[in-house]
Specification:
Strand order of the largest sheet: 1-2
Number of strands: 2
Largest sheet: 2 strands, antiparallel
Shape: globular
Length: about 375
Amino acid sequence: MGIASYTAAPTAALALGLFLTPPVSIAIDAIISTAASLVSPAIGNLGFISPAMGQPDALTKKQSDALNAYNNAVSDFEMVLGQRRAQINSKQPLPNLPGQALYLARINMMSAYKDLTDVLPSKIGRPNKFGIPPAYFDADKEPLLDEYRALFDLMEAPPANAQKSDSPFKDVVDLAIAIARARGLDAANAEAAGRISLGLFFAETNGNQNVGNARSNKYKGSFQTGPSEDQNGRRKWAAIKSAVAAFDRVLSHRDDKEEARVGNLDHRFNHWIAVRDALMSAHANVFPQVPAIVKTLPSPIDQMKLFELIQIIPTPTRSALKSGNLVNYRISDPKIMGYLRNNSIFAFGQADRARTSATFREILDAMWLFNAKFERALSKFDEIKAR
């Protein structure tokens, strides 16, 4: 799931996938001058350099170079945002993988800011609304990330024939609990599996059902699965469906209805079936370990992070779980470190990208970009339980 688990990136930037798209057509130059009038009001009046980033006195060459690199990265990010907004507003055809250039420009901006604050700590500013550590992000640039998210929402909108659910969050929890019970968990631990799975839904799609993917042509739907994962999950569900029906006939009946409804549609665009098959493909086999995981990682957000790592680096994560020393299990394979960087982990700034190894405790701590999504998932889970 996601997009970087199975493909190495040619550039050290971070992720939920990272592949540099071909340059935007030269024809786009003709509309750059109009981008200011077309761009979202959220960024329309922004300058490239915040007042806090003004040239200080007596900078060393290293500090001056870092400041210039950051200002250039901000300028590049704003330009790419403006180009994509102009294309969308004028209904121009978008390039293949239209989110890649946006994604890379955002990563470069945050990386350049971290490099700047590493050599000039006085540039670390106030906290930001995204919960990003201030050493990695200038809060004055919040509108740029707002526009970034808005553009992705447009580019990843579900197809017209997608089959949505009126209870998408509850579906995730109900399916995860049922699968966990079928795998032998008691009620309390099955509930933990439901909570963790809701976190995965937010991590993969920001809590939006049936979405496309602006950075991949392979991964689609509510849990961002590829075709092989979807098919694998269907086979595994068929093997346990009778066990689920034995203790939850209501859920089994809902499943029958969704199977009849989906027909010949890509199953990943029926929310219920996409969630079901994704959980069966990647996580059902790990659910029996939930009691041990909860004991080792008491924080619900850490638990969600670990299950997200099953999607990003599945084999090393399963090895770490089997090791008996999860938090101290060390990753040092360059390819695996690359997958982590492609998914927003150790990806910002030269110091992060220079790391050659990390323990699972260090990896979990470095997944701070996921925190806000997992906190939203916890809040939504509490709402579901309160009903």
